Amino acid sequence: MVNLSINGRHYSVDAEPDTPLLFVLRDTLGLTGTKYGCGIAQCGACTVHLDGQATRSCQVPLDSVGTQAITTIEAIEQDAVGRKVVEAWVALQVPQCGYCQSGQVMAATALLKQTPHPSDGDIAEAMTNLCRCGTYNAIAAAVRQAAA
């Protein structure tokens, strides 16, 4: 059994130590807001926070999580910065298909918690998640609005 702290709640999970955190979140615990995209940590659809750091959960083995606090999209609005990001996403109607957006919101929240007033360069450097619909301009605009 592995003990995890997810969204402020404690869970005991019976899974193989090398199971990717993404699969534990989605398949074992039913937290399906975190998406499976590519499985090789390139697209960012699986982004969660580990102790506040944006992390691609598809490549995080369960046994490497340890005592780190995990935050998923399901709880992001409980954080003041996360709430501002979601409000900006909605106000600017960022999503098209929406598949990547939970990972985008998680990446943007981590950026703004680390750099409350990012430059355009900071946004470009931090927002590396892929969007098949190409909403990158809207994503950057929403990050700027949430930072205001």
UniProtKB/TrEMBL annotation:
Pfam family membership, one: Fer2_2
Residue intervals of the 2Fe-2S ferredoxin-type domain: 1-76
The protein, known as: (2Fe-2S)-binding protein
Keywords: 2Fe-2S, Iron, Iron-sulfur, Metal-binding, Oxidoreductase
Keyword Cell membrane included in the entry's annotation: no
